[in-house]
Known about the structure:
alpha+beta, 1 helix
Amino acid sequence: MKGVFFVGIGLYKKFFVPLHSMSSETRVNNQTYRMHGHDYARPGTYEVTMLVAGRQAVFGELVGTTKAGGDAPRLEPSELGKIVLEREIPKIHHYYPMVEVWQGGLMPDHLHMIGRIT
């Protein structure tokens, strides 16, 4: 698919996690997530969100509280979550030299990345 890249989570058969991707046909309330007429393969800065199929919380769990005096909320990553953060996201530039991942955010059932395509 032109302009789309995926994290190689499937390389770890023990942890195979099918990811949903947002295609130009993905619609919510009959609206697409993509800007009409934009070529996502051209250079630019992009935010990418990938969801785990079935929204299963496989990347970790949220711990902490928003209440005063408690530990601030944070993700306690699972073994798979640690692999994604420490090994898989850094590999993207190796496989796609035109892509630089600037920032990533892992949640229990999805991941966000901000990156640049040059």
